[in-house]
Backbone:
């Protein structure tokens, strides 16, 4: 079972606590940080721009990827996958290529299925290597799209924060005949900038970096799986494969 990773919530909590503590130490009112209009401009503008850039499906995919970050990846699962392939090599020594075909049909993993079917058909090793390489390139490109979506949001949010500040200042210019309202109006106008910069640097960019880091780990694991499949194609001994990939 995967265990929950609370570090994202911990980091977010520390960041927000530091911001609110700084506001309190400066003697500012917390009510200044709440401005629905600014939130609407920054949040809605950023979402709209990201949808234009990445599409609705891209936003949904990024949201799902972020949700999965709540679970910590465990290397034991990857080792188990390698162990299954090595066990399959032992089975194939007795039952022949039929073992590869049966596992390929049941595994539900396109990379493994494509590779094992070609191994069962005794395809040319260079051909197998090329197919696996192209599959890994496709997975790598697709996996980077979620991080790119969040990076796009991180780029747009501060810009819409500035837009919100400008619109707020336009509102301030309408009450120049009321000096007592100018200070409050200007302070409120810049709340949108705080929202944009805060979202970008406390949420979007860190989450994008986290997604890229996890994706790089996944790709390394997938490359090891492809390497094991190539070892099966070369008819390496199961014990030799296990030793090379440190599988017990």
Residues:
């Amino acid at each position: 079972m995967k265990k929950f990773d609370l570090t994202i919530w911990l980091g977010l909590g520390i960041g927000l606590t530091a911001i609110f503590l700084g506001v309190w130490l400066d003697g500012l009112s917390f009510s200044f940080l709440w401005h629905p209009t600014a939130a609407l401009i920054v949040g809605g503008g950023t979402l709209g721009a990201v949808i234009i850039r990445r599409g609705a499906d891209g936003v949904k995919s990024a949201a799902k990827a972020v949700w999965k970050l709540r679970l910590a990846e465990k290397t034991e699962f990857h080792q188990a996958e390698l162990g299954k392939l090595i066990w399959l090599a032992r089975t194939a020594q007795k039952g022949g290529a039929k073992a590869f075909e049966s596992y390929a049909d049941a595994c539900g993993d396109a990379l493994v299925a494509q590779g094992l079917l070609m191994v069962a058909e005794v395809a040319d090793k260079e051909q197998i290597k090329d197919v696996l390489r192209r599959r890994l390139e496709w997975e790598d490109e697709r996996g980077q799209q979620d991080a790119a979506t969040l990076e796009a949001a991180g780029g747009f949010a501060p810009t819409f924060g500035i837009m919100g500040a400008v619109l707020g200042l336009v509102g301030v210019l309408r009450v120049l005949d009321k000096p007592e309202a100018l200070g409050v109006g200007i302070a409120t106008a810049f709340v949108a900038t705080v929202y944009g910069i805060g979202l970008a640097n406390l949420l979007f960019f860190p989450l994008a970096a986290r997604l890229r880091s996890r994706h790089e780990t996944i790709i390394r694991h997938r490359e090891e799986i492809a390497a094991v499949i190539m070892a099966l194609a070369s008819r390496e001994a199961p014990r030799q494969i296990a030793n090379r990939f440190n599988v017990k």
Q: What stands out?
A: The chain has nine helices and no strands.
